[in-house]
Design a protein that fits this description.
Distance between the termini: 21 Å
CATH architecture: 4-Layer Sandwich
Largest sheet: 7 strands, mixed
Radius of gyration: 18 Å
Shape: globular
Number of domains: 1
CATH topology: Double-stranded beta-helix
Bound molecules: fe (ii) ion
Helix content: 10-25%
CATH superfamily: Clavaminate synthase-like
Oligomer: single chain
Number of helices: 7
Order of helices and strands: EEHEHEEEEEEHHEHHEEEEHEEEE
CATH class: Alpha Beta
Strand order of the largest sheet: 1-2-3-16-8-18-4
Structural class: alpha+beta
Strand content: 25-35%
Length: 285
């Protein structure tokens, strides 16, 4: 018997899809899992509405996609499930219990600053404000494919410096000295080749990319500003307005994301799992 294909609704012309009729809790059949992985590779962002995942469910499903990263900011991890990074403005004793508590957060790739950056993230909404706090995604495969020739000549074959310190400074996140030492600035190619699909995508972001290697500082600054403006063009962007129970699984190799501001009088709580590439296999499926 041929397995029934999952129903999908594309979110934009080039990337992103809502996947219908899938429950990410409990057992997931091998056929369904294989299809989800293929859709994730094809679309870059998958939306699963109306989920009712426990912490175990979120961790368990994420592990089916790849090994999970434990974030270095231990103070933001869930007490019982350290695989869950809390992203929230909820405070305990005056201190936020999660990452990126308040306000707007600019374009970035999760963990672009690590030697082996994440390949995916699954963000699940637990509490959301009535308005605001939306998450925008940008399709960096298409941004690279449509890149003007003069920029393509600069980015191909070149590295850029990625800095978690710069990000923490920008958002005043109070990383301690040990954490800062654990995340020195690092160079990655400006164009990331996807380890599973082989597709090429722009791999820079205003939140963490501070310098193009091999260019004088002023030229690097000018090119980065041009690239940042290019990669955030509306033609590459999907904006997600959250509902409770939404799960968003995205591809960190070929999409970047940012968050809208929201009214801090309302609590917002999300759990994120961060998914690493499979260490020993080119194709994990
Ligand atoms: Fe993020």
């Amino acid at each position: 018997m041929v397995a029934k294909a999952l129903e999908v609704r594309p979110l934009t012309e080039t990337f992103g899809a809502e996947v219908l009729g899938v429950t990410l809790s409990g057992e997931i059949s091998p056929d369904t899992l294989a299809e989800i992985k293929a859709l994730w590779l094809r679309y870059g962002v998958l939306l699963f509405r109306g989920q009712a995942m426990t912490k175990d469910d979120q961790v368990g499903f994420s592990r089916l996609i790849g090994p999970l990263e434990i974030h270095i900011r231990a103070e933001w991890l869930n007490d019982t499930h350290p695989e869950l990074l809390q992203i929230t403005n909820i405070r305990k004793d005056g201190k936020a219990i999660g990452a990126l508590a308040d306000g707007e957060v600019g374009w970035h790739f999760d963990q672009i600053y690590l030697p082996k950056p994440a390949i995916g993230s699954l963000l699940y909404s637990i509490k959301i404000p009535p308005v605001g706090g939306g998450t925008h995604f940008a399709d960096m495969t298409t941004a690279y494919a449509r890149l003007p020739q003069h920029l393509r000549q600069i980015v191909d074959g070149r590295n850029a410096i990625q800095s978690y310190v710069a990000f923490n400074t920008m958002y005043s996140t109070d990383a301690n000295a040990t954490q800062t030492t654990m995340t020195p600035d690092i160079a990655h190619p400006l164009v990331r080749t996807h380890p599973y699909s082989g597709r090429r995508a722009l791999y820079i972001c205003p939140g963490m990319t501070v310098k193009i290697c091999g260019l004088p500082d002023d030229e690097s600054r000018a090119v980065l500003d041009e690239l940042f403006a290019w990669q955030a063009r509306d033609e590459f962007v999907y904006r997600h307005d959250w509902a409770l129970g939404d799960g968003l699984l995205w591809d960190n190799a070929c999409t970047m994301h940012r968050r809208d501001d929201f009214d801090g009088a309302h609590e917002r709580l999300m759990y994120r799992t961060t998914i690493l590439p499979q260490p020993d296999r080119a194709i994990p499926f």
